[in-house]
Design a protein that fits this description.
The chain is of the alpha+beta class and 186 residues long. It has two domains: 65 residues, 3-Layer(aba) Sandwich (D-Maltodextrin-Binding Protein, domain 2); 103 residues, 3-Layer(aba) Sandwich (D-Maltodextrin-Binding Protein, domain 2). It has six helices and seven strands. The longest helix is centred in the C-terminal third of the chain and has 14 residues.
Amino acid sequence: MGIALSEFDHYSEVEQTLRNGQAEVGFVLLPAAAEFEVWTLCRDEFVALLPPTAVVQDALLTWEQLASYPLIMTPVASPHIHARLIHDHLEQFGQSLPVTYEVKEDSTVTSMVRRGLGASIMARLAAEPIPPEIQIRSLPVPLERTIGVAVMADALLSRAAIAFLDVLRSVSGWRSPSAARSEPTA
């Protein structure tokens, strides 16, 4: 028995696939619903992506410097939760950055920044691979997302799913579910 991988555009789709029993393991944005057993896989910093021509004197980016560029972002409307996280984060600090371009695909955002059409704020992993000509700066006040591994809390996991979780644990350091949750042997 092997592992089948599926890609989804939104974390909510991953959660629904787990609920429907169409997958045993999913990568989700934490915190997740209580019906899931979750483990933190990694933390991912949101960064400012600046065009190649950007002139930022200090290593530390200011809100004012970021506001001087047209902003290229994914939609704030659901299910695009990253843009909502960024918007809410900025609002906490009395900042409002008007969005000039709103596009759905992360790769389109990075391409537009690379071509000098503006700047963006993105989760670093979502922006990968980041073209070398794009300047990357931390936000003036850090923001990160936490990506986790989820299974249904009451799920009986297959041997393949347990083996997959064990591999993830070995490369990331989180604790895997106990072997007692695996399917019974015949």
